[in-house]
Amino acid sequence: MKKLFILSTLLISSTLFAEVKQEAVIRNKNFKAKTEKVVLNDLISGKCFEGRFFKIVKGKSDDAICFDDVDKELRLKAATTYYHLTKAHDFYVNELKSKYVKSHKQMIIRLDIVNQFNELGHFGNDNITPEYNNALSIPAGRGLESRGVKPWGNEIWFRPSKKINIEDLNARSGQDDFKGVLEVFRTQTHMTTLQRFISTLVQGQLPKSGMPATEWFNFGMRTVGASVIMEAGYQLSGPLDKLLSRKWYKLETALVPEIIYHEYSHIALSDSLELSHSTAVIEGMADYFAGVIANSPKLAKKIKKYNTFNGKNAKNKKDFMIQFETTDYANTDFVFGLLWGLRKVLGEKEATEFVHSLRHQVTTNSSIRNELIEGIIKTCNETCKNPFIDKISILQQLNLCGI
Ligand SMILES: [Zn+2]
């Protein structure tokens, strides 16, 4: 028995490569992005981005990207996704004690993949309109033996970025840079998603698309989260400045920590929230955890500012509207703000455990006004310390958002 123990200890220590350091994008205290050498944990390869929980590959390949890849930007994206995915994985296992995440085996992470996802064939045909500037978590599939499609597990896909001329955005918004465009978006409406907003602005400008904007948008539905999370991606400075100049818009999702946390959260919550399509509930839940894992007071402040219901700033007033129930508004900040508000009532740590338990009481298709609210009440019955008092506080909080 003892021998076996020594042998297995030896095996584990010889297959894990501690202290591999690579350049990755991280946030500093002020929520600014910078590149820094970080330690990549749980690697099972000494040469490539392959670990116990994640294997980072390029496009449709099954081979891990290696540390000596000639493409420097690809290496940066591989290290950044690996590093932040590991952080998110550890959060679910260590902080939330998620048995589901603990049971997960190695997951494939695809960078620079432009193919659409196909439920039967895994990868959509190469000739179908390629996708850029977003990210997507995909459900496992059985494959199609007759067509040589192998079964696959849950995966996360990060699209390559592609420049879109910002002059077109300017012409339509009357603003002189992208930040200005964002402000227009922010102040004019909380009911539309940033991505939809952009896709509307650039419709007809997408190379070789020829696809109506609505259709184009539908392909990217369950993508990168609420506008506040997406904005975190745009409002970066430092090494990412080059991604967003005054001339061009592009979003390199694999370099934005919050987007990585958001996509991983879809996977971590998928024991209850099926990865089928985008709804307000599934997006709001993933955003909540992305905000928590980011653990940045600066981001928290931003979230609070944008999600203050009936706050002093009338522009930020975000009462519930029936349209929020529809798929078109799945990425609105409403559910995110509602869940974030629970932190005020229950405490931060308690609220995070609460929202994690809440996933058992809702589904991807839950409506906000009925099932989500019922789910919150049920979760409180089961987990709140003082269900009676806490439910009253929660209902008061919900009342503030017009529910
Ligand atoms: Zn999402």
Textual characterization of the structure:
- The protein is α/β, with parallel strands linked by helices.
- The chain has a domain at 14-158: Elastase, domain 1 (Roll).
- It is 43% helix and 10% strand.
- The strands form 4 sheets. Strands 3-4-8-7 form a 4-stranded mixed beta sheet, covered by helices on one side.
- α4 packs across α5, α8 (227-234) packs antiparallel against α9 (257-268) and α10 (280-294) packs across α12 (334-346).
- Mean pLDDT is 77; it is low at 9-13, 169-173, 185-224, 235-246 and 310-317.
- The structure holds zinc ion.
Architecture blueprint of SSEs:
Elements: H1 2-15, E1 20-27, E2 33-40, E3 54-58, H2 72-95, H3 99-102, E4 107-111, E5 117-118, E6 122-123, E7 135-138, E8 155-158, E9 164-165, H4 166-173, H5 178-188, H6 194-201, H7 213-219, H8 227-234, E10 248-249, H9 257-268, H10 280-294, H11 297-306, H12 334-346, H13 348-358, H14 368-383, H15 387-400
Parallel strand pairs: 3-4, 4-8
Antiparallel strand pairs: 1-2, 5-6, 7-8, 9-10
This protein binds zinc ion (ZN).
